[in-house]
Amino acid sequence: MKKDIHPEVFDVVARCVCGNAVQTISTSKDLSVDICANCHPFFTGQQKFIDTAGRIEKFQQRYETKNKK
Questions:
Q1: How far is the C-alpha of 37 from the C-alpha of 59, rounded, in Å?
Q2: Is 3 inside any structural domain?
Q3: Distance CA 13, CA 66 (A)
Q4: For 34-61, how does the pLDDT look when each residue is reduced to its tens digit (9 = 90+)?
Q5: Which structural domain range is residue 48 located in?
Q6: Which 3 state secondary structure label does DSSP give 55?
Q7: pLDDT tens by residue, 2-38
Q8: Distance of CA 53 to the CA centre of its chain
Q9: Residue 1 CA from chain centroid, whole number
Q10: Is residue 17 domain-resident?
């Protein structure tokens, strides 16, 4: 194998916003995710809205004004 062409690999803990943490390896030193298998609706059977940029409110406001006309 050629030397100095492969990225450095780190042991990291991938953390979800729900609090779940998983030990894994990665080329980046820090991993954080918005959704994981513990909180994903497919696996839990519960629907949950993740609104990071106010997109749901923008959508609702846009269509509320059209329905009022």
A1: 27
A2: no
A3: 46
A4: 888 888 777 777 766 666 667 777 788 8
A5: 10-68
A6: helix
A7: 888 989 999 999 999 888 898 999 999 888 888 888 8
A8: 13
A9: 35
A10: yes
